[in-house]
Amino acid sequence: MANNARITVNSTAAFLKAQKLMPGGVSSPVRAFKGVGGTPVFIKEAEGCLLTDVDGNQYIDYIGSYGPMIVGHANERVVAALSKAIGRGTSFGAPTEAEATLAEKICSALPGMEMLRFVNSGTEAVMSALRLARAATGREKVVKCIGCYHGHLDSLLVSAGSGALTLGTPNSPGVPQSVTANTLLVHYNDLEGTARLFEQYGDQIACMVIEPVAGNMGLVLPAAGYLQGIRDLCTKHGAMLLFDEVMTGFRVAWGGAQVRFGIRPDLTCVGKVIGGGLPCAAYAGPAALMEKISPSGPVYQAGTLSGNPLAMAAGLATLEILEEPGAYESLEECSSRLAGGLAEAAAAAGVPVALNQIGSMVGMFFSNKPVLNYADATASDTAAFARFFHAMLDHGVHLPPSQFEAVFVSLAHGEDVIDTTIKAASRAFDSVKL
Ligand SMILES: *Cc1c(COP(=O)(O)O)cnc(C)c1O
């Protein structure tokens, strides 16, 4: 599927029009190719692991909608479930049985998470979980890791900061200093620095929020003992541990990273996969805690489209596929084959890369040292990534258009597709050196 001499006139025209009507021509920033330059590929349709653009070019897809498409695009079981649901009406503003069915499936996969509340996006889930943690502890400070992303809520739109421990300053205009003043920053994988912060502020900390496997600075894995270490710190200081598994939930394992690493957070956010490609997310916790949410309790949170019947149908169909024996083993096999193949191809071409992989996520950094945190991630060669990205696009492989996004494998990526990808990469690595 080499798209050599790829024609992109229709994407170019679509992008010109879109830029007049929407900031950057997109509905979410990374789609605009700012990190790699050039014109974004406008998608006409997708099936399995293949994207077709508006000019008729095909690509093996490793964006996976940034996480949700774990069973592949237009999966026939998901489409059948959606078709059945759509004829029955698309939103009622009244409860449906499907909500409890999906809630039961999610909660049963997450030990200790007895109840959940559905929302429409990961941002909403984290924002609401944070409100709950603050209400339950009567404390206001929140600890966050530099380089972790938790959606675009004001209070967590903070990641910059050079010192080991910094009081939060906003990194978007429009976010008031007063809102981020209660956000405390630590380095990912830095247990000692985090312990020092807890020593100083422990009795004011409502919760520590973390991506247990970081997927928004590229893919960065937790060091051995790190997650247990922060679990112990939170317990010791009476703070809650909030696992933001919006990306990793039902992605790195059935349930998520908390199951894979055997750590029990106090609150969990899930999203992406649980909506099967429709807008859906949730926050979950023990019943006694979740009962504090309105209307059972005083912590207010609501949503016109929350628990939407189409999202419930797509989410349930997706989880039913993932629940079948062998699904996660096959995802793991494919993504480790991909990571191994990329490492070999890079080595053969003499291009230094650092590869991280877990479950169906792969992170490849153009770096000559291991990547354990944000500082390591941002030290990688983004210009080399941009050249590699465009070469891959020309060879019919659509990676996420940023060095700092994870690569997502789905059940529709078979061994052959992985091997085709590795062959394309072998050629693309040569253009990196130019
Ligand atoms: C994607 C993501 C979010 C935000 O979810 P949206 O649905 O984009 O609002 C939050 N946390 C993590 C870890 C994510 O990967």
Structure description:
This protein is α/β, with parallel strands linked by helices and 434 residues long. Strand 2 (50-53) and strand 3 form a beta hairpin. The chain is globular, with a radius of gyration of 21 Å. The protein has helices at 9-21, 76-86, 97-109, 122-137, 177-180, 191-201, 226-236, 257-261, 287-290, 309-322, 327-349, 374-378, 382-394, 415-432; strands at residues 43-47, 50-53, 58-61, 115-119, 141-146, 166-167, 183-187, 205-210, 240-245, 267-270, 281-285, 354-358, 361-365, 397-398, 407-408. It is built from 14 helices and 15 strands. It starts with 8 loop residues before the first helix and ends with a helix. Residues 121-123, 126, 149-151, 211, 215-216, 244, 246-247, 271, 281 line the site of pyridoxal-5'-phosphate.
